[in-house]
Amino acid sequence: MSKGFLLVSVLALPALVLADSAAFSGGVWFNHAFDDNNPLDRETGGEVGDVALILYADDGGRFDDYRLGVEFRLGDGSFTQPENNHTGNNFGFKYAWVGRQFSETALLQLGKVAVPFGVPRLNFWPGEMLRGGYGDVQDIGVRFEDRVGAWRYAVGYFHADDFGGTSTDTMDDNGHWGQSVCDDGAGNCDLAYRKVQTLAGTLDWEIDAHHTLGLGAQAGRLQDLAPLVDESSTVSGRSRVNGDHQALALNYQYRRGNWQLAAQHIEVRRDLPRVDETVRNGRQVLTTGYHRDRWFFFVEGSSAKSRTRGATTDRVYGWSPGARYHYGPGWIYLEYLWQNGDIDRAGDIVEGDFDAVYLTADFYF
After folding, report:
1. Are 345 and 317 in contact (CB under 8 A)?
2. DSSP alpha helices (H): ranges in 132-183?
3. Residue 304: helix, strand or coil by DSSP?
4. Burial track 184-201 (b if 16+ CB lie within 10 A, e otherwise)
5. Long-range contact list for 342-345, CB < 8 A, 24+ apart?
């Protein structure tokens, strides 16, 4: 079993606020990685890499009811994939939107914004685990959210999953919605597709101060990218929008005192443009967290099982315990991740073998 050790430091640059302009800030992170199954790491003690510069901008409350949100990353630690993003390099936008605040709870956003679906994770570095593709996803579109009494809702239309005409990249939760390249020079383009023309929404009912039930749904089309990205010229024809995808999420959240808990079940179905069998699977996520003074402790677990015809993968599992400490201007995180499976680019379940320890620090001012 492969084991890794990761040390990440984040240093935030001073926020710069110009008169009658947006507020700007930034940061930089890098990590030290050690894999005890790698002979070179055992010889050298690992390597420092994955450095990234992160720039932020927001409205700073200076434009009446108009809002702005931007996060831009630059560097090989940007958690983007050059072969699949719209820049072709290690930089891009995590999110970039403009909007208008109509009331304290009503907000309209336009640009690259969060897709409303499911509940957020508690961990920092391990990521979405077996909810991959349905976690922290930012797509290109328009979104509206509001609250009416005990009900909260968010709806959106998302034209594509990133800027550009062939990008399939979603920072932090990428690798689960097709790809912008063919697998080899022989024209193997079965997974060259992207998510387009998607409707998504959530509806949450706050039963009381402690219990919330939620429903999330999304449905849209899939675009065949093979005629656009096949460099071997073995794929003929034109790019068509001839696939579909649907997903449904049922959520429960509990909060009382210092405790919080969330449970989620996700049903997934995809008809890929170049794959005959319909992808079907179910995922389950259970998280719990506890605050104590400057500490936060959590455990997240997930499982997934494919129901795609012909699939031979057994049910797979993942779990991540961890803790973080708020020392003042930032946090220190200690987290562990173990998984015996993963989510592939078709959105289906595959077997795997992975575990790692992550030690992370950040600093903002």
Report:
1. no
2. none
3. strand
4. eeebbbbbbbbbbbbebb
5. 342/130, 342/132, 342/316, 343/130, 343/132, 343/133, 343/175, 343/176, 343/304, 344/175, 344/176, 345/175, 345/176, 345/177, 345/178, 345/179, 345/191
Phi-psi region of 189 (alpha: psi -120 to 50; beta: other; left: phi over 0): alpha
Tell me the torsion sign for CA atoms 72, 75, 80, 83.
positive
Instruction: Give the whole-angstrom CA distance, residue 263 versus residue 252.
Output: 5
The token pair at 37 is 């199954």
DSSP 271-288: E-TT-SSPEEEEEEEEEE
**Dihedral through CA 207, CA 142, CA 128, CA 162, nearest 10?**
170
pTM above 0.70, yes or no: yes
Running DSSP on this structure, what letter comes out for residue 131? Answer: G
pLDDT in tens, the chain (365 residues): 444 444 444 444 444 444 457 789 988 777 777 666 678 877 887 777 778 888 999 998 899 999 999 999 999 888 898 999 999 999 999 999 999 999 999 999 999 999 999 898 998 877 899 999 999 899 999 999 999 999 999 999 999 999 999 999 888 888 899 999 987 655 589 999 999 999 999 999 999 999 999 999 999 999 999 999 888 777 878 899 999 999 999 999 999 999 999 999 999 999 999 999 999 999 999 999 999 999 999 999 999 999 999 999 999 999 999 999 999 888 888 889 999 999 999 999 999 988 888 888 777 76
Q: In terms of DSSP H, where are the helices of the chain? A: 39-44, 226-229
Q: How many Cα atoms within 13 Å fall on the side-chain side of residue 346?
A: 21
d(CA 182, CA 226): 7
CB-CB contact of 222 with 271 (8 Å): yes
Q: Which two tokens stand for residue 108?
A: 């309209």
284 vs 299: CA distance, rounded Å: 14
Bridge partners, 152 (sequence order): 147, 204
Residues 6+ apart with CB under 8 A from 136: 114, 120, 121, 128, 172, 173
Q: How far apart are CA 89 and CA 83, in angstroms?
A: 8
Return the structure tokens found at 255: 């909060």
